[in-house]
Amino acid sequence: MTVYYTKEHEWLRVEGDVAVVGITAHAANELGELVFAEARDPGTTVEQGDSVAVVESVKAASDIYAPVTGDVLAFNDALTDDAALVNRDPEGEGWIVRMTVADAAQLEGLLDHATYIALVG
Amino acid sequence: MNQPLLRTPLYDLHIELGARMVPFAGYDMPVQYPAGVMAEHLHTRAKAGLFDVSHMGQVRIRPKSGRNTDAARALETLVPADIVALRPGRQRYALFTTPDGGISDDLMVANMGEWLLLVVNAACKQADFAHVHAALAQTCTVEMLDGRALMALQGPAAEAALASLNPRAAGMRFMDVVEMELAGVACIISRSGYTGEDGYEIGMASGDALTVARALLACPDVAPAGLGARDSLRLEAGLCLYGSDIDLTTTPVEAALEWSIQKSRKPGGVRAGGYPGAAIVADQLADGTTRRRVGLRAEGRAPVRGGTDLFADEAGAQPVGRVTSGAFGPSAGGPVAMGYVAADHAGVGTRLFAAVRGRLLPVQVSALPFVAPTFKR
């Protein structure tokens, strides 16, 4: 299992050809308390950089971009009634989507933990 | 557009309090403090929030004749509200209208006894000043009060907090305006606001703003609140945001703001018309309009934001309007929005469909406000 990060403040935990995707603690803090989250329907193929989910605070909606190309497998249903779970445990129970990794080579372009932390200071 | 952002007299305090600053109407303003928009919103409804609104414009109109009625009559050539009947020590909501019946800003007008005080939106203040000056300069001295700050103390604990600094605050009624001292500072205080809560708006010389802000923040129930909470609070209260819910293309009647046109200024009234666009507004008062500003509540959890198209049918074949403001309402407990819809779809309870991310989500036309006001009338 390896955890990758993106400059757009997502993380993805990869096991085999499946990734669990969420937003970083830094991003969750910046967005403020979330009131709504939803993802593209399971089975939808998303290209790297496409919007794969949306999270919303009181004030604004923010897209979550697919960090890699793949198929959406599942949305974290716990967020349906409690989107603020993302704020409480952004890199654990507050994951957002599970998706396949179509091309493992794309992972090489992502950031490791140390690089991401350096990026957000 | 590389002009440096302006700062209010409370800028350093915002930084000290850990605010996240954003550009707004040319000012560097606190959108939220570390508590966050949700907590600041709920705290304001439960206790009291302190907002810095010093970016707003304050304009003084002083009649050259010395008779304030002359200033009131002059201002009535620009706004449909009854200013002549506005008694000293009272304030009223008004609109600047345009010759084609649009709205160039909304504002508060206070009768200060010997002069009128206007409080206008930050983004419009230069244009408003020019507009008033051009129309009134013959009969009145019109000044932009650049050296003044303004803050709003809003919420059920506002009265006790302000009364702890000056007991006279407790005796004020909604829309009263009183000059009084707070913490040794001469202030102009109105019992009004933009949240639907009881509360006060407090103006003072810029150099004294920090003294008053610190005195208020020292009250146990008062916490700072930013523009983010201000926006969700005013939306739940059904109050318009100029530039979103009302603008040059919306008329007072379309905007459901005819309550701000008193009987004396309506057709048949003692000083009917006489403001820009009066004939158009009169026709609309008589005949109605083809579209109307309404409240909207989503049936689901997804917020419906400003700019979202509205349809009469689930297939999205019949467009009937557009959302102008939308957010999650922390006190309403769900998504709330306002928008303009065709008059035949504007009845409370009408089911419409909002196009959100390619799907049509059911919403219902809802009475405004979403949260009952607690004004001290």
UniProtKB/TrEMBL annotation, chain A:
Function noted in UniProt: The glycine cleavage system catalyzes the degradation of glycine. The H protein shuttles the methylamine group of glycine from the P protein to the T protein.
A Pfam family hit: GCV_H
Classification of source organism: Bacteria, Pseudomonadati, Pseudomonadota, Alphaproteobacteria, Acetobacterales
Protein name: Glycine cleavage system H protein
Gene: gcvH
InterPro entries: 2-oxoA_DH_lipoyl-BS (IPR003016), Biotin_lipoyl (IPR000089), GCV_H (IPR002930), GCV_H/Fam206 (IPR033753), GCV_H_sub (IPR017453), Single_hybrid_motif (IPR011053)
Cofactor note as given: Binds 1 lipoyl cofactor covalently.
Sequence positions bearing N6-lipoyllysine: K59
Keywords attached to this entry: Lipoyl
Cofactor(s) named in the record: (R)-lipoate
Domain of life (superkingdom): Bacteria
GO terms classed as biological process: glycine decarboxylation via glycine cleavage system; protein lipoylation
One Gene Ontology cellular component annotation held by this UniProt entry: glycine cleavage complex
Species annotation: Komagataeibacter rhaeticus
Subunit structure: The glycine cleavage system is composed of four proteins: P, T, L and H.
Family named by the database record: Belongs to the GcvH family.
